[in-house]
Amino acid sequence: MHVDRFERYWMWAATGMLALFLGAIVLTAVAGSAHPPSHVETLDPETLSVAGEFASPGLTEEADGSLTVHLRAEFYVFRPEIVRVPAGRPVRFRITSPDVLHGFQIVGTNVNLTVAPGYVSEATHTFREPGEYLVVCNEYCGLGHHNMQGAIVVEAAR
Ligand code: CUA
Fold first, then answer.
1. What is the pTM of this model?
2. 115 CB less than 6 Å from ligand 1?
């Protein structure tokens, strides 16, 4: 089969790009530990504000001494809006939505979750430095989307 010289160049170029992109994915997954979220846990979005772990959101210390923050992302506010956590300890964030799709991004960290009604999203982070971290919703959720923000206040370990 005759393939024109320039067509052959372009085929090799396209093949090279595919190999490059695939290599970039494998490299970030293996060397950079960047994995897509795989946590699947469902709940009823209509009752989560009434009963269960998301009815009174906030920081809780589990029986084993670990820290969990339960949050709700709902029309244009995070509940609680401001969360205080200690520095230097792993904090597990569990968040869900009773209405539409929201985002939960802690600016300056690797925590960046999509919050879907009916599902619990989870991420764990250890804040090394005390300070205030901005939390933003990064999924367009409606007219008040641009005002939907909160804060994580990291306090020096006592
Ligand atoms: Cu919530 Cu955008």
1. 0.77
2. no
